[in-house]
Design brief:
The protein is an all-alpha fold. It has 4 domains: about 1-135, no CATH class; about 145-230, no CATH class; about 235-280, no CATH class; about 295-393, no CATH class. Helices cover about 70% and strands about 0% of the residues. It has helices at about 5-25, 35-50, 65-75, 80-105, 110-120, 125-130, 135-150, 160-175, 180-190, 195-225, 235-245, 265-280, 285-300, 310-335, 340-355, 360-365, 370-390. α8 (about 160-175) runs parallel beside α10 (about 195-225). The radius of gyration is 21 Å and the shape is globular. The two termini are about 40 Å apart.
Amino acid sequence: MASKSFWKIVLFVFLTALILRIIFILSLEQKFYFDDEHEYWKMVDNFISGKGLMVAETLKAYRPPLYPLFLAVAVKIGAGILGIRIVQALIGALTCIFIYILSKKIFNEKVAIFSGFISAVYPFFIFYTGFLLTETLFIFLVVMSVLTIVNLSQKDTSSNYGFLAGTVNGFAGLCRPTMELFFPFCLIFVLFSKDMLNLKIKKIVYACLGFILILTPWIIRNYVAIGKFVPGTTMGGAVFWEGNNPYSEGGPCRYFPEGIWQIEETSRDRIFYRLTVECIKKDPVRFVKLLGKKFLRFWNIVPNAADYRGNLYRLISVFSFGILLPFFIVGILTSRHNRHAMFLLWIIIFFTVFHMIFLASIRYRVGIEPFVIMLASSGFITLMDMLKFNLKT
């Protein structure tokens, strides 16, 4: 049974996170601020009106389904933009609790308290709560995915738990397909746990069953709607092109070949991939340079987007993520013998490499920032302990 101190910390983290998010939400106008918000809302309109969960007739499987389904449920029960933002504030506050729990499991109580509190006040987490974008739901699902995999990898955890881990990872994949690609690495992590081999195999089988069960309805729906096997989306090729076309600087680049959006979407997706590969082959040196640019965009201390380059946004970013970054590096170095901490590094590296190849933005980094916060908290606590030890001696 959890102690009183545990519940006090959980309540404090939750209320701090919720209050800050509500304050930010109330400062916003009741309108959409990002292009993606309009597309998700269009999907909700199409779904509720019976046209299907799609952006348009030529974009039936272009975006993943979970977030627009979440929005559709909210709309059905009468929530408007403000109501959805408040629900997201609750999800964001709940995420901070699970960051605390996960950090406690991987590190210790001190690191967990720091991680939970930093997550509660972290400006990027608060910011995305206020917009109808996947970020808040995705962060929650990524944290839950890692938590279930860490639990599954522990000695003597029931193999049946693998079904829950696979299910949670499946939902994360339906929110953003990047997590579908990371799932095999989760299974490898479980495979190298300290359990008996037969128990590890059972865990992996159950995890795969849960993962497949969640993805299957979307796969069937896509086959019925467009006649092709699409486990994720048909967006990948376009994103690959945006990040690597002749005019790209590694971020969003709205240059597309004329007439391409009228092509059937799975064919269009393949064409985008083919055109991008041809572009890379023509100038591989430029591609390598773009990899470097995208790495810098992904890990930039200040915002990349022109609308958010003002002094206020720069200061907020520098005095939040910028302060975390050096302690994060220390945390990596001092946690290298902690197997579960290294799993956090796996997902951080995976997301970094993925977006270096495709398209890079600070927005895409937010999904792994809970783990940056955990490692940074560990690095800070370790340095403080070392300083105390040196002062005593």
